Amino acid sequence: MNDALRDLYREVILDHSRRPRNYGAMDAANRQSDGFNPLCGDRLRLFLLVEDGAVRQASFVGDGCAISTASASLLTEAARGLPEEEALELVENFRGMVAGESEPDGESLGKLTVFAGVRDYPTRVKCATLAWHTLRAAIEQTGETVKTE
Amino acid sequence: MIAAPAYDLEKVRADFPILSEEVRGQRIAYLDNAASSQKPRAVLDAVDHVYETGYANIHRGVHVLSERATEHYERSRRRMAKFIGAQSADEVIFVRGTTEGLNLVASSLGRYALREGDEVLLTGMEHHSNIVPWQMVAELTGAKVLAAPVTDRGELDMDGFRALLSDRTRIVSVVHVSNALGTVNPVDEIARLAKERGAYLVLDGAQAAPHLKLDVQALGCDFYCLSGHKMYGPSGIGVLWGKKRLLEAIPPYQGGGEMIRTVSFERTTYAEPPAKFEAGTPNIAGPAGLAAAADYLDGLGIPEVAEHEARVREYAESRLSEIPGLRVVGTARDKAAVVSFVVDGVHPHDLGTVLDQEGVAVRTGHHCTQPLMERFGVPATARASFGLYNTEAEVDRLAAGLRTALEVFRP
Predict the structure, then answer these.
(1) What interface predicted TM-score (ipTM) does this complex get?
(2) pTM (global) more than 0.80
(3) What are the residue ranges in chain B where pLDDT is below 50?
(4) B404 shares contact with chain A (CB less than 8 Å)
């Protein structure tokens, strides 16, 4: 694997794509949203348990590439415990980082900065952001399937 | 014994400037020809030649540049008529590509032929461009759209096809060569069956044109569509061929300049085909490039091209079969130069990114054939598709890239 690939497929990403965390439907969920990337066929369903204005638990099911699966997996860890507003801020920070609009900020993004390499792969940005757009939809309860095109 | 090559591959590759491009220090191995093919110098020159020596709007001006541009355009129409075996150049409509050709036929033939309760028979391996336009016209007319089943090998299930044909079938529209699987459909048999029922037959020839010698009259269809950019010509130009009496009978597609005889607010009359279907200023230089692509293909010989591609494809199938966990999707007995595949534990999108790093271009995704992907139970495939300039060495690079991908993604 060359350096450019290693920058994209960081060990953390490979690990989460092989063994996604919080994978499975959640019976207790009170928010749910679907994401679909028609370009590559990636699909995911995100489940949230929101109590007192904060995300108590998050899980997902779906079928996608390594980037989108790892992104969803890490999202379910990162969102847990966040007040809804902070979760929405995180969505924006994450999106800004992978779109190359802002520098990777370890303070706000923590280990999500492993996705910083995606900015060099314009065709893969949507893979990384699919779960995050879906998170926004679940929090805002738009009830529509999120599409990244 | 190795058969003598059909033509001098190195010389042919030198005709395509882009094949010398380097990607990350390596020459590009372009294996995405079913999406779009690269252009030989002769095609680029033919387009430039129009702009440099005879460009103006066509069919209008009395001045010399308009006359020259019109002559380029109409000469290209005659050339394409010959390329596809049309009886007359008046049967050749220039369109943007196969998608526009199919939309034109669906809209115009659909409005002419379809009534409530009529049926349009497609197959389960159609590109979205041969599904959606029929759904749109079905909604207008009250007709129904049916799809014949596909076998596990990726061939058309002819028993299933026959079972869906009935006296209600007014139009049959089928892909000649599948873009996602490479399957070559038995269009002679389909034409015979359609004719028995008195149904019109439309063929989507986007993938067939660069691989098969076409003779639209012998094929027994009523309409045939192709795209220039998949047969080494420019993008934005293609051909819709239709039988003359049908082109005269069906209503126009778009209204505007060029397609009329007289216009008044009380009553407008239309021009004869092909002008009837060419509203507005068309792609003026594109046809010259397309005609040059036809010359180029005929110069090499389409049977020779097909023979070369078959050799590269068979080599690819044998190399890929050595890769653990790789499964080829679509193993039709009659197949064009496409190998679609999935690899256990590695998503096609990730395969595509790793291969791109190695300078190998393949397509990953659903190939605009979502019902077909559903049929095979995969969200997407990776697809290597070969053209007249591809080499076995490029296949070796594909195989090496796939092994790299396995190292990355398999724990």
Answers:
(1) 0.88
(2) yes
(3) 1
(4) yes
